[in-house]
């Protein structure tokens, strides 16, 4: 059996921030245990994640980025569109060619693996990258599937599907149901519990996702048993596959004292991290609310201004990552000018117009609350930093994140959002939370009182548990040890099987070599353009 340092892992994240970032965090954690890890990427995504990888290399870890060309232009996408966050809410028609392009990366990945002097020991694929399954099968590479959402959400979607609840409610997006056979009482509707790829036009891709998971050598969750053991175990039992909970991987980024790697996590920040830190240094402990809706969720202009007025009237200091300011002229006009929002809140509000160094901000002791869209990474980052949440979900798994934070862990205050804004009548203009609602919720979260104190205390306890899980002897540390050992054994076994079958194949002169040159209907081979960088 190979020792960890003899192992080579390939990580294949989905090209979306909420997937690339945790997989690079986890790649770093795995590299910290000895193996060499290569993260498969594309030019735009590699550039965004260069700082984090460079930081890991400076720390002596064997982590590198492989850049495969992104075939978007072949499917009609503009050159350079390589990440989900580059598709705006009004360009939904681009999703289909975008996913077609991702699927077409199988050829270059296959060529890369074949060109390696030694077969990798394991490929860890995002669950949304099922096109890696035939590549691994052909090359005899063990394959694990990693889920970037919570186990709570994945189990809920699994139960709703297997119990026929989605079928029963049909097209009715708002018919309320309770998730059957679930460890806790969870109520929602189709709009708030929609699964990934459960939308028209991607039925084949959805089948690929389910098949790739059902045939994987194991399943990895970026979570911790202290928070999600019931959901992880039920999911593992439902699927009948080895499953590991190895997170929260963000702890690795959080405790990193390499300031550049930390502030450049996921992208170059649109603000000087040092400036934010000085601003936070000047504020009392736990007094600042951090506001962010992640990488892809945008508020309507009307909803955004309601939020702004609520923050203004709350009187509390805040840092707000307003990415809409980069693309929405109306938002920019609202923020700008002598009597604009930014000028009015200058003494206590700091706006980041674009990408914020989120973990740098959340690590600061002055931050005492997080108004979050409840993406799973944001949720884990809130937990890992002991920061209670003001929950404001917008799409897919975020409503499950809100339930976990508010109902199960009791570290969240709800904003009052009920449903994704796309299901609201046009006259609502995307507004579900008024400025008065914002003001009230901010006060409930950040203000005094026994409930707020208890919430803060629970958040601190969870942060201790999150960090302990990742430390030597912690549950996630032990799960990762087990996962690496399992991979080592499996890789040796697969290698032996391959040797035996290739000897047999050579003896009967099969046409396998010729067949191996084709995959998914395309010609692949050493001529596929590749570049490996570290
Ligand atoms: N993020 C960041 N700066 C930003 C916005 C997001 O660093 O301005 C990071 C955040 O820390 C998280 C990831 O991007 O790790 C977003 O993932 P999440 O699951 O929270 O939300 P998504 O963007 O997938 O909706």
UniProtKB/TrEMBL annotation:
<dbReference type="Pfam" id="PF00201">
    <property type="entry name" value="UDPGT"/>
</dbReference>
<dbReference type="GO" id="GO:0035251">
    <property type="term" value="F:UDP-glucosyltransferase activity"/>
</dbReference>
<keyword id="KW-0808">Transferase</keyword>
<comment type="similarity">
    <text>Belongs to the UDP-glycosyltransferase family.</text>
</comment>
<keyword id="KW-0328">Glycosyltransferase</keyword>
<protein>
    <recommendedName>
        <fullName>Glycosyltransferase</fullName>
        <ecNumber>2.4.1.-</ecNumber>
    </recommendedName>
</protein>
<dbReference type="InterPro" id="IPR035595">
    <property type="entry name" value="UDP_glycos_trans_CS"/>
</dbReference>
<dbReference type="InterPro" id="IPR002213">
    <property type="entry name" value="UDP_glucos_trans"/>
</dbReference>
